[in-house]
Amino acid sequence: MKLKEMRDLLTTEGIQLTKSLGQNFLHDANQLARILASAELTPGDRVLEIGPGLGPLTQLLLGKGARVLAIEFDRRLVEVLKNRWPEHPGLELISADALRYVRETQRDWSEWKVVSNLPYSVASPIIVELVQSTIPPARMTVTLQWEVARRLVAIEDTDEYGVLTLLVQFAYEARGMFKIPSDCFFPVPDVDSACVTLVRRPTPLLPPELAGSFEKVVKRGFSQRRKMMMKLLKADWPEARLKHAYDELSLSPQIRAEKVSLDQFVRLTQLLASPTDSTGSK
Ligand code: SAM
Fold first, then answer.
1. Whose CA is nearest to atom 21 of ligand 1?
2. How far apart are CA 116 and CA 140, in angstroms?
3. pLDDT in tens, 232-255
4. pTM for the predicted model, two decimal places
5. Distance CA 237, CA 217 (A)
6. What is the Å distance from ligand 1's center to 200 Cα?
């Protein structure tokens, strides 16, 4: 879908875009093609597209033979999409808030691939919601704000490394990222974007019953980024157990969360969990 086609369609439909809904539409054919290639689709794949907008990506997904579930919040755009593809057998269109939909439906996404140019305002919560759904999607190729993308793929001891990094990388491996300059979108947003591909880990790093504890350790550890993690964790775990775990991992008691790797957080969670209380809480 070229820029002119987008503009004409919006004018014909009398649609004024809503900034708060992150309505910046991708019109650059090369970038759209790169996103599609990163998604590695095969015909018949089930694809979740959040925020299809005017449908530039939807068109490519359908062209690949994917079965697309597209969730769009803006009813005006839903009408445009219905007119574009009346009764397309490969397209199911839902008019809803995707965050609420994912949170409330709790469906089995295990065979699904997510391919979306996400609305900025809800990109991180939607990703976390999908990552933490009962059975998360096999793969996600998502376009989002450059700064958020860097947090998804970050490693320890960097400014971007934090709670979002760890919650996502706990379940997914990052497999590539490329920048999409802001002028590839209409209207041009204030920030650049990036497309990131995440692939679900074949084997979970911890058994499901410890996933909540992992999140608790990470969130508590990063609750005050500049503080020593040991001091923060004392709010939830007994000092003796913390000392034992730190010794086992050869972690300095002075270490801050941003220096602790994903593997170390995983091991710490295991060590803090006790046989009688899997959260490891006091
Ligand atoms: N996929 C289109 C493209 O690449 O041109 C549009 C992407 S635009 C960045 C984000 C889209 O998400 C907009 O169409 C917006 O209306 C929609 N949107 C915003 N918040 C949403 C939500 N909570 N649930 C579903 N769609 C949402």
1. 73
2. 8
3. 999 999 999 999 999 999 999 999
4. 0.94
5. 9
6. 24
